[in-house]
Design a protein that fits this description.
The chain has three helices and two strands, in the order H-H-E-E-H. It is mainly α and 92 residues long. It has one domain. Helix 1 packs antiparallel against helix 3. The protein is elongated, with a radius of gyration of 20 Å. It starts with a helix and ends with a helix. Pfam families: DUF485.
Length: 92
């Protein structure tokens, strides 16, 4: 199964989405940690009733939910149907 062309295409599709998104989110998270560590005065700046650090922390959660939503939509459209087809073919 792992050597089949369909499975390889499925893996390529999965990796083509998850790796770039994971790297982008990791960079975003590291940015947050670096700014909090080396520029605490920036994080302490007031902005719209709260400080910048709180807003960036909230943005981390929002980003997580958005990524999850987008991945579920992507997987339901591009991954799951192909995986089900491969499973059906393999199980006979």
């Amino acid at each position: 199964m792992q050597n089949s062309e369909e499975f390889q295409e499925l893996r390529k599709s999965y990796r083509g989405f998850t790796f770039p998104v994971s790297v982008a989110f990791f960079v975003w998270y590291i940015f947050y940690v670096v700014v909090a560590t080396f520029f605490p005065q920036t994080m302490a700046q007031p902005f719209l009733g709260m400080n910048v650090g709180i807003w960036l922390g909230i943005a981390q959660f929002i980003t997580t939910f958005i990524i999850t939503y987008v991945y579920v939509k992507y997987a339901n459209k591009n991954i799951e149907p192909r995986a089900a087809h491969i499973r059906e073919v393999m199980e006979g």
